Amino acid sequence: MAKFTYKMQNILDIKYKLETQAKTSFSIAAAKLNKEEEKLEGLVQRKNAYEIRARELVEDRLNFQEIRVNRTAIETMKGAIRNQTLAVHVAERNLESARKHLQNVMIERKTHEILKDKAFEEFKRELEREESKAVDELVSFTHNHVIEG
Asked: Which of 44, 54, 106, 138 is least surrounded by CB atoms within 10 angstroms?
């Protein structure tokens, strides 16, 4: 019996590898986004702590040097938060880009799987036609020999 070989199997294999790479890229981008969000949250918490300390400094005996240092720290944290917010947005865009790439690669792989399935179905139909033809010839041959005999 004939064996089915998909002529574009090498392309399908490449599509599988590309999909694996895209999944890896997507998971790396997701991890990067999580890391950036955690970093942002940490900065926000530090800024909040500085603001609480600023209130405490104003309520106690006034130490202008410590108040000035604290305000500088708060402003520094605001700048760091702005920068980190931008880093989070960049990570979100990278994640979205990786998601779209993964989606496209998966569509291409599925398309090739469908093509392979269709080629296999055509192969099976061709085998069935050949088998049917062989059976018809055998029946015809047997019938002719029985009549002649």
From this structure: 138
Give, as one character, the DSSP assignment of residue 21: H
Q: Which residue has the tokens 């019996």?
A: 1
Cβ(9)–Cβ(109) below 8 Å: no
pLDDT in tens, 60-73: 788 889 989 999 99
146: helix, strand or coil: helix
> What is the pTM assigned to this prediction?
0.72
C-alpha distances out from residue 26 to 21, 31, 135, 137, Å: 9, 9, 54, 58
Beta carbons within 10 angstroms of residue 15's beta carbon = 20
